[in-house]
Specification:
The structure is a homodimer of 249-residue chains. The first copy, chain A, has 249 residues and is an alpha+beta fold. Chain A has helices at residues 27-39, 72-82, 137-145, 198-210, 219-222; strands at residues 2-10, 46-47, 56-66, 87-95, 107-115, 129-130, 149-152, 170-181, 184-191, 239-245. Chain A starts with a strand and ends with a strand.
């Protein structure tokens, strides 16, 4: 048996997110089906994390076991031939048998993009959130910086995430930055890990800062394990997972 | 009654081309439906030309008569609110009552894009033709140049175009240029007018030159009213109509 990791890029618009869900078209199930035909038996694809319906990926990682002795370059080509064009395999790599794309990840990076002008080009509208209304971008940029560091992100966790086991909601954000480039307001965040819906809740909060419903300073208490969830979530389509980083082999 | 022209941008992927066809979703019928709700009666939208199913437009022109006294800026906003996000109205302009977007056009520009590398990004695949196989791009660039000038494009006309009336197939190409920029091979052509399917047949022929099934010099006879149609047509999704030009008011 071999352990193979793949780097995957996808346009999430026409999928119900990463994770297999009965009767729904998802990224994981679409790739698993193709892998299973290659190996002649059911193959389980283990992701580096999940993305919500409509979220995109520039390059995420997943891994699977394979019996087929096909060289990795041929495997990449065979997968791309059978997958729909909105999912692409960028690379396939041989790994140690104990490689776990989720637990071995050192860092993940996400980017959120907001189109700020009245008319959003048809060729970009799948990949940005269109918000042409006034925003205090100076305050948003200041607030984005404040996410850097180790914080308790309880307030930014998904409301449906189980708290029963009392799992830690502390995450380390290595870098968080917002900037405006022409018509697009970008928010890029790199961290050790992210809770379910966390980036969309962070961006939702930043939008409330932009609308002056919150001050950047509100993060002082919101990032200290504040028990109430922020009720803001930015739309999925503006979000792209940029990368997942692993230790050098 | 007023005569209004609109500049329209669209992603043609999910439409059966420009022209109204019973039971099919087209650009023309989608915009006509919204215009008709605005004016409380059926509105006919006259295009500057037709695009095939899957062809895109950066900025094309169309015109209609309207009784509603709504200012043009508000009209643009009202249309964009009701249209799907893959069709955008860039501008609405008051015109003389005799303005005809098709017959008043001075020039049209199209661009065809070919993705030349093995892996076509999911975020671009709707807007390029993916051809990662060997092509003699030097010969293609030489052949593209030869389209410039006034020629009889009978060989590049659609096979289903009626020849009964013996309408002239002579068209003037002001500029035609192919160039490679990073992973993309571009072909841009600007002319007085184009026959149905003409740009896709031109690009289809250029691809045959790239595959060395034709020499650039074959254009010497093909552009002199050669009666047999070239049997090559490049896929619609790589084609975008860039602009339509009109006389200054």
């Amino acid at each position: 048996m071999r352990r193979i990791s793949i780097r995957i890029s996808y346009d999430g618009t026409d999928y119900h997110g990463w994770q297999v869900q009965p009767g729904l078209r998802t990224i994981q199930s679409t790739i698993e089906q193709v892998l299973s035909t290659l190996d002649g038996k059911s193959v389980h694809l283990e992701g580096s994390g999940r993305t919500d319906a409509g979220v995109h990926a520039l390059a995420v990682c997943a891994a699977f076991n394979l019996d087929n002795p096909i060289p990795t370059d041929n495997l990449r080509r065979a997968l791309n031939r059978q997958l729909p064009p909105d999912i692409r395999i960028l690379e396939a790599t041989e790994r140690p048998l104990d490689f776990q794309p989720r637990f071995n990840a050192l860092a993940k990076t996400y980017e959120y993009r907001i189109w700020r002008e009245e008319i959003c080009p048809p060729f970009l509208q799948r990949y940005v959130h269109h918000h042409p209304y006034p925003l205090n971008e100076v305050d948003m940029i200041a607030a984005a910086d404040m996410f850097i560091g180790e914080h308790d992100f309880t307030a930014f966790a998904s409301a449906d995430e189980s708290d029963i086991l009392g799992k830690s909601k502390v995450r380390r954000i290595f870098d968080a930055r917002m900037w405006r480039h022409e018509e697009i307001l970008h928010f890029r965040v790199r961290g050790s890990g992210f809770l379910k819906h966390m980036v969309r809740h962070m961006m939702g909060f930043l939008l409330e800062v932009g609308k002056e419903n919150h001050l950047p300073e509100d993060l002082h208490y919101l990032l200290k394990g504040h028990p109430a969830k922020v009720p803001y979530s930015a739309p999925a389509q503006g979000l792209t997972q940029i990368s997942v980083e692993y230790p050098l082999p």
